[in-house]
Amino acid sequence: MRPKVLFLDHTGALGGAELSLLELASYYSESSLVVLLSDGPFRLRLERQGVKVKVLPAPNMMMNIARKGSAVQGLLVTPQILKLAHQVTKMAREHDLLYANSPKALVVGALAGKASGRPVVWHLHDILDQNTFSLIHRRLVVATANHMTKRVIANSRASAEAFVESG
Questions:
Q1: 81-101 burial by CB neighbour count: b if 16+ within 10 A, else e?
Q2: In whole angstroms, what is the distance from residue 123 CA to residue 102 CA?
Q3: pLDDT for position 31
Q4: Which of 66, 34, 38, 37 is nearest to 50 (CA)?
Q5: Non-local CB neighbours of 139 within 8 Å, separated by 6+ positions
Q6: What angle do CA 75, 77, 153 make, to 5 degrees?
Q7: In whole angstroms, what is the distance from residue 16 CA to residue 14 CA?
């Protein structure tokens, strides 16, 4: 019997990370759910593959946080992130595992995993370095992954090495 996985992604757009998730979620489609924090063509692709999808629209302030953004942005959106995590926590209790597919999904999913007592796996698709993420965002993501996930899966050696170098 396959585990019940709650997949979490921040975007409804289609990109490489989402195509990777599409394949995995299709494999677990009978017992799992994909939660998207925004709607878009990704939801349609998932549904065509027979995957159950729920859209929990994240506030624009959260979705507009840039990788190179400031700590102030993160502090301002914290109450909204906590509210989303609370909603995900309720769904997580019906699943065996949370699978976060992006840094934003990681933050929400890690909080929900902690509150629900469910393990969290993060699929890292990004190179966490000073060229792509601000120092505060790198530290937040690395600390969250190190202290609140069961495993981190990197999509490449370069992603894995950058993650390790970031802490």
A1: beebbeebbebbeebebbbbb
A2: 7
A3: 86
A4: 34
A5: 166, 167
A6: 90
A7: 7
Q: Are 18 and 26 in contact (CB under 8 A)?
A: no
Helix or strand or coil: residue 108? helix
Measured between alpha carbons, how far is 42 from 54 in angstroms, rounded to an integer? Answer: 12
Question: Model pTM?
Answer: 0.89
C-alpha 130/C-alpha 115 separation (Å) is 31
Give the largest CA-CA distance in the chain: 45
Contacts of range 14-23, beta carbons closer than 8 Å, 24 or more positions apart:
14/40, 14/41, 14/42, 14/45, 16/125, 17/101, 17/102, 17/123, 17/125, 17/155, 18/42, 18/45, 18/101, 20/101, 20/123, 20/125, 20/155, 21/101, 21/123, 22/46, 22/49, 22/51
Per-residue pLDDT tens digits for 83-127: 999 999 999 999 999 999 999 999 999 999 999 999 999 999 999
First to last CA, the chain: 36
Q: Is the pLDDT at 64 greater than 80, yes or no?
A: no
Q: Would you state the pLDDT for residue 66?
A: 47
Beta-bridge mates of residue 6:
33, 98
Using CA atoms, how far residue 40 sits from 37, 43, 65, 87, in Å, is: 10, 6, 19, 20
